[in-house]
Amino acid sequence: MSTTLPPVELTLIGIGTGNPDHLTRQAISAMNAADLILLPHKGEDKAELAALRQSLCDAVLAPGTAVHIAGFDMPVRRSQGDDYLVQVDEWHAAITMRWQAAMADALARGAVDPSRRNALRVALLVWGDPSLYDSTLRIAARMQPAPVRITVVAGITSMQALTAAHAIPVNDIGQPFVVTTGRQLREHGWPAGVDTLMVMLDGQCSFAVLPSDVAHDVQIWWGAYLGMPQQLLDHGPLAEVAERIAATRAAARARHGWIMDIYLLRRSPAHSTSGCA
């Protein structure tokens, strides 16, 4: 794309877990103040995700708004090999190029007019909050030229939505907790010194492969599609509900073509004396 980008003001807006009620007034104001909102498309099997973002825009953008909404195709991360960090780096570089191409295309077609301001105001809608296990800020830092300003609008995280749905606190009194990923749990086991884990980004049900001596006396609180009409919840002793949760997750993913889930694991303090691989 040959169109030269003007100065860009980038706003990253946390949108919670897909429920319009999760949008703050600050988020709604930021969406209406944008010239361009970019929505990622992740293929036909995840078309519902793009539709959810579009429905949020439809719900809160003022009638007759000049905000232009443009989609871009998300590149697929290479998954072959064990060079995970290199794969992620390549993927982020590709996403940056797609962002900038979408901005340039909107300018070339006259869909946005940055001349009325000093910069093109571009917004991206981020699931949950841009600060928690999301790379939008890192991708934004790759833009060339760099945005003249990056603004972050905080959003409700899936962690908050999970604990609210189950009506539980995230930690015991005076005790720490760890937020981690399924990959970390599989490869490194239960972290030392903590009894509570909040596990995100786990497509392989890593809770089901914990050694029996680690999983003993562990409770799990699981949730998927949190805050949405199709919300799913389960809770109980890990040894009793792990297979049920895994089966429920697989069926839901097959039905919808995608799934976003998260879970909390808590064990008794008697098992916290050392890390377990």
UniProtKB/TrEMBL annotation:
Organism: Diaphorobacter ruginosibacter
Species classification: Bacteria, Pseudomonadati, Pseudomonadota, Betaproteobacteria, Burkholderiales
Keyword Hydrolase: no
Name recorded for this polypeptide: Precorrin-6A synthase (Deacetylating)
SUPFAM superfamilies reported in the protein's UniProt record: Tetrapyrrole methylase
The keyword S-adenosyl-L-methionine belongs to this UniProt entry's keyword annotation: yes
One GO MF term: precorrin-6A synthase (deacetylating) activity
All residue ranges annotated as the Tetrapyrrole methylase domain in the record: 10-241
An annotated GO BP: methylation
PANTHER family (UniProt xref): COBALT-PRECORRIN-2 C(20)-METHYLTRANSFERASE, PRECORRIN-6A SYNTHASE [DEACETYLATING]
Pathway the protein takes part in: Cofactor biosynthesis; adenosylcobalamin biosynthesis
